[in-house]
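for the recovery benchmark. tokens below, seq after
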């Protein structure tokens, strides 16, 4: 059962090339920062704009992935990070069958991005 205090959806930002490579295998093992940290970084909808600003400013050819949290099971851990907020971290590869949507995005130099409606 989904924990009512946790969002039902989390989001991952990666390059379109990383997404294309993962599409060939059906598994996303992580971006370089994920591999270095030992888990795949996700953001909630409310954390996403700040994540884009801090980590992806000025980057084009990105992909935004949407994943339902209940599909990730016990591998998804909520851990204290930026500003004391709880962030979702996945301690196993992301199976692409769990990605319910993906959108191409670009992030302006000031960190702003046009996100899909509803985010």
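predicted aa per position
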């Amino acid at each position: 059962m989904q924990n009512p205090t946790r969002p039902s959806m989390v989001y991952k930002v990666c390059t379109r090339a990383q997404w294309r490579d993962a599409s060939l295998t059906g598994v996303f093992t992580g971006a370089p920062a994920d591999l270095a940290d030992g888990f795949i970084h996700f953001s909630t909808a409310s954390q996403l704009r700040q994540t884009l600003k801090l980590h992806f400013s000025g980057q084009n050819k990105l992909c935004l992935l949407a994943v339902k949290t209940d599909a990730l099971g016990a591998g998804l851990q909520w851990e204290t990070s930026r500003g004391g907020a709880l962030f979702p971290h996945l301690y196993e590869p992301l199976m692409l069958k769990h990605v319910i949507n993906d959108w191409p995005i670009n992030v302006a130099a000031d960190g702003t991005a046009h996100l899909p409606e509803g985010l």
